[in-house]
């Protein structure tokens, strides 16, 4: 039977000296005050921003789906197409990189190369990649497609490699003991252990890619983000509110479908 203490005892302090605890707190407070004082606040611009914010909230509460529906539907179809194709292409490309980046089944040089590619993909934010690719290929959905594909390789490749490294080694050794080739080991020992999670991650990445398509569209990479940027530039807040509501609805539907599919796969 467990016995619990009847008296509360204070946990040990990280800094035992009371003088240094107070001194550090005063220094942190002084730094916050100095940092706050260094912020250059233009209260005239703040006032103007609040006025525009109120107009935006008003437009969000009275969304206009009809006036610019043609532009909205075109941007939405382009964004969905870009998201789906980029996710499929990214997942297909990430599979060999994910397998190669698993230390337990790949040679060292293959492991190093694949990990470097995955690290490069993960080190750059989608918005930065989109800006670079728009400069290379010009405005349009192709730059967005390449951006989302590149981001999917890093995301899926990293998680797939980690899953393979955490596979049950007994199953891998059992298949190897039969004289199976490397491909047969991957097919019969690794694939059954990682496939359910791989499908769930792919659906989750589809959800992420749609949200990212709205962001990268603002820098000219096509999709619904470009339509949203145009509406905001024209101060057409009712259309912008309608676009945001559509994005929120699609993301919620995607999240629901993703959670249902992950639960089904379990």
Automatic annotation (TrEMBL):
PROSITE patterns, alphabetized: ABC_TM1
Keyword Zinc-finger: no
GO cellular component: plasma membrane
Subcellular compartments: Cell membrane
Molecular-function GO terms, alphabetical: ABC-type phosphonate transporter activity
Membrane-spanning residues: 84-106, 127-156, 237-257
Membrane topology: Multi-pass membrane protein
Alphabetical list of InterPro entries matching this protein: MetI-like, MetI-like_sf, PhnE/PtxC
Pfam family for this entry, one: BPD_transp_1
Domain ABC transmembrane type-1 positions: 76-256
Primary subcellular site in the record, as a coarse category: membrane
Keyword Transport set for record: yes
Keywords, in A-Z order: Cell membrane, Membrane, Plasmid, Transmembrane, Transmembrane helix, Transport
Homology family: Belongs to the binding-protein-dependent transport system permease family.
NCBIfam families to which the protein is assigned, alphabetical: PhnE
Protein name: Phosphonate ABC transporter, ATPase subunit
Natural source organism: Ketogulonicigenium vulgare (strain WSH-001)
